What does this fold into?
Amino acid sequence: MSRFPFLLALLLVWTLAGEGVRAEMVCTDCRQPIEGTFIRWGQQAFHPQHFACAGCARPIAGNYVPHQGKPYHAACYAERFGERCAQCDRPISGKFMKHEGQAYHPACFQANVAPRCDVCDAGILGRYLVDPMGNRYHAEHRIPLCTYCRRAVSPKTSQGGYTYGDGRSVCGMCYPQVIRSDREVAAAIEEVRAKLETWGLSVPQTAAPLKLVDLNRLKQLMRRGGLHGQNIQGFTSVLSETQGGQVTKREIAVYVLNGMPREDFMGTVAHELTHVWINLNATKKLHPTLEEGACNYVRSLLHAQSGTPDAARNLSSMKDDPDEHYGRGYRRAKAYADRNGLPALLTLMRRGSAFPLGY
It folds into this structure.
């Protein structure tokens, strides 16, 4: 935003008094002698009532704008020579906006040119935020983002939304996809289990119970296991008893967030059941980068087969995830499987402990 596009000159009023002042001084306008106060304009003198604006011919009583050797009222100068608003074509005085080489009154710019806030539909002049879906909105709205699609939650951007008791926000576009009933949960789990079977990862139904929990409970379980993380959706707990260096008892339990959209829920189940498969089949303890990366790779196979917009969103998030284990590990696992095939990756998960050099 710019300020005045011209400079105002200070009007100086003089008074004839004392010795040394020429008595024959005459007004440049009326050519009559000057007595008392007068206005000096360069080498010229004027009666105050005769010092007139070159634009409207009315006397200038205050500050003025000099232009090409003539004085103008600020408003008259603006009308003739100043910036004009590209929207309303009226002169601009005071603050104005510049956009693509054109000037605008701030109000005209905000109402007609400025990008619109996708939440309130008002023009945006200051700082604003953009969600991953491209929705722009004033920073002062302070609205939540959907925990899953990251869309700004508002009536206009997401058809409203819901907030769970554990603090998660789900937009009105993701909420219809949320798996809620026990029947839907059971069917989705078995669908994932069947897909893993076709990829060579057999996880018996009896291997580990799968329980739905809220975010607070999931974080509590992870802390007990000495783990922490961002955007967590599931956790596989493994309690083992050993004797003579051999595992004599192993209890595995899978915990998954409740209230997730179907694609996110199924992806999380695929990830956690792969953890179960690793615990049942691996001969060595896997490095976290290999284990989490491989689990995310199996998850990506499910999303790739699904082909839904939510699946594409999940795949994009995994591809760009900066996390060392979940993000970089996934990309290393994918590179290994792309070059050597899925069976080779499963063999590495069974017998190896880390990625070989070059991955």
The CA atoms of residues 242 and 248 lie 5 Å apart. The chain has three domains: 13-80, 115-176, 182-351. The chain has a mean pLDDT of 89. Residues 262-281 form the longest helix (20 residues).
